[in-house]
């Protein structure tokens, strides 16, 4: 079950691995009845100026956001950061500069590692260059990520679809899952706080942790200054939502939510995600701290 919501605090555009331009994303949000939208591209603010222009003309309330990659105990973790005060934009941008450089460096390593698995030694260098080149072309100067490599693996015939590309080569623990360039959870969170954002641990159920390990993660996040938890991310079981609400309340973390929209499909859209519990109070909602 998915409901249509008037606020969506986690979405992507073509500035990272989404398919819509920032303007198209805002337009689609508006059509879907979303009144408050956060654009949270991976490690970049590049789509925000265009999104803001469209949001102003349509009367959508746009929140400046970003989804930052980091690592905690060897696991890739994502933090959604939302900026209440536009005057801090420069500081946030500065915090993200090393992140964009890390993505470029990582891209080179991913290409090398994929080529090492896919080709015999004499052909590796050429394949590395080809994979890297094609991934850059897909990313078109935007935040280069694993979905771009997934597309390249499809094009070169190593897999038949994106899902298979992640399952075999790019997903957690696979050869193309390179995390060495990311900052630690503590560094990322502290820096985001210093840049004036409100920080939310993204899609906590996506990491496939035991409840005990997730509890350790939440404590580490909070100890570093983390303030919020995504209690709903896209489609999820009602029991998971209830569990996350409980965990947020236990630590006093603010509650956030979003579609994690990347592209329109019959099962995902801007503003579409599982129901939010009616029991959430205004003060528990992250929106209360953003206006
Ligand atoms: P990156 O930002 O380069 O680390 O790539 C992570 C992105 O890959 C996520 O934000 C998703 O958009 C996408 N992704 C992760 N896992 C999968 C998967 N199993 N299938 C398809 N896309 C995925
Ligand atoms: Mn993504
Ligand atoms: Mn994510
Ligand atoms: Mn996301």
From TrEMBL:
Recorded GO MF terms: 5'-3' DNA exonuclease activity; 5'-3' RNA exonuclease activity
InterPro entries named in the record: PHP_dom (IPR004013), PHP_domain (IPR052018), Pol/His_phosphatase_N (IPR003141), Pol/histidinol_Pase-like (IPR016195)
Coiled-coil regions, chain positions: none
Domain Polymerase/histidinol phosphatase N-terminal positions: 7-72
Organism this protein belongs to: Allopseudospirillum japonicum
Pfam families: PHP
Taxonomy, superkingdom: Bacteria
Name used for this protein in its record: Polymerase/histidinol phosphatase N-terminal domain-containing protein
């Amino acid at each position: 079950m998915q409901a249509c919501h008037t606020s969506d605090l986690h979405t992507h555009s073509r500035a990272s691995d989404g398919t819509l331009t920032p303007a198209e994303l805002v337009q689609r949000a508006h059509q879907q009845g979303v009144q408050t939208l956060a654009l949270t591209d991976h490690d970049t603010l590049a789509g925000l100026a265009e999104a803001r222009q469209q949001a102003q003309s349509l009367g959508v309330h746009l929140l400046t956001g970003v989804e930052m990659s980091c690592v905690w105990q060897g696991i890739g973790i994502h933090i959604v950061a939302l900026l209440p005060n536009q005057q801090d934009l420069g500081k946030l941008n500065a915090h993200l500069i090393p992140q964009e450089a890390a993505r470029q460096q990582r891209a080179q390593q991913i290409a090398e590692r994929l080529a090492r698995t896919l080709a015999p030694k004499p052909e590796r260098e050429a394949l590395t260059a080809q994979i890297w080149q094609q991934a850059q072309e897909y990313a078109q100067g935007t935040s280069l990520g694993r979905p771009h490599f997934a597309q390249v693996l499809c094009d070169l015939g190593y897999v038949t679809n994106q899902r298979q590309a992640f399952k075999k080569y790019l997903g957690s623990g696979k050869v193309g899952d390179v995390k060495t360039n990311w900052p630690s959870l503590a560094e990322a969170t502290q820096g985001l706080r210093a840049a004036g954002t409100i920080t939310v641990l993204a899609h906590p159920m996506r990491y496939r942790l035991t409840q005990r390990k997730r509890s350790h993660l939440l404590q580490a996040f909070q100890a570093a200054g983390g303030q919020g938890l995504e209690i709903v991310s896209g489609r999820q079981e009602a029991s998971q939502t209830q569990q996350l609400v409980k965990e947020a309340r236990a630590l006093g973390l603010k509650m956030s939510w979003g579609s994690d929209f990347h592209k329109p499909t019959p099962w995902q859209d801007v503003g579409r995600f599982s129901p939010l519990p009616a029991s959430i109070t205004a003060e528990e909602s992250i929106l209360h701290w953003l206006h």
